[in-house]
Amino acid sequence: MKKISLKKTTSFRANIGLHGPFSFETGPLYAEIEQARENTTNTLCATTSIEHMLEETIQKYLFTQDTKKIEFFNKHILKTSFFTFATKKQIVLTIVQKNNLLQGNKLSDLQKNLKAIMNYRNALVHGEFVGIHNDNSVLLKYFDGKPTQVTLNDNYWENLETTFEKTYSLLEDIRSV
After folding, report:
1. Cα 136-141-147 angle, rounded to 5 deg
2. What is the pTM assigned to this prediction?
3. Secondary structure in 3-state letters for the chain
4. What pLDDT, in 10s, does the model give residues 82-112?
5. Is residue 9 part of a domain?
6. Is 21 contained in some domain?
7. Structurally, how many domains does the chain consist of?
8. Structural domain includes residue 13
9. Residue 149 domain boundaries
10. Would residue 1 count as lying in a domain?
């Protein structure tokens, strides 16, 4: 398969001073910015996977075997742009709660994790990577009700991974019921 090459439009600022030539392709923060971009892509793909699991849960709850109704529902409702991730999330949480599909803290964990996943996605997609040259760090600046910034370090990415892994597990628990 062809590997495509498109211009990247991720916002990036670096306070590097004027101490000689600098290129983003060879600069000190290039590897970190490229990794952040790759992680953003992986986060988007993983968010889509979570969304598909939400769709399957809704579909399984509403329909058992009528394939014409399933096809209609998928084409004209579930897969449309007005049936957002937030809507799917709320419907699945209602299904889970109404049918007692998760016990103990698992329902609140699912609720918290789905919210966190959308926060990660929105911050990475709409935020701005800011390189801090003097300590070789990269910040993510975004708006989440107020201006927010986080350092994109291993702890940030590990928390993101853990949130996704726990959410996959909880949604798998629901699917097996």
Report:
1. 140
2. 0.82
3. CCCCCCCCCCCEEEECCCCCCCCCCCCCCHHHHHHHHHHHHHHHHHHHHHHHHHHHHHHHHHCCCCHHHHHHHHHHHHCCCCCCHHHHHHHHHHHHHHCCCCCCCHHHHHHHHHHHHHHHHHHHHHCEEEEEHHHCEEEEEEECCCEEEEECCHHHHHHHHHHHHHHHHHHHHHHCC
4. 899 999 999 999 999 999 999 889 999 999 9
5. no
6. no
7. 1
8. no
9. 29-175
10. no
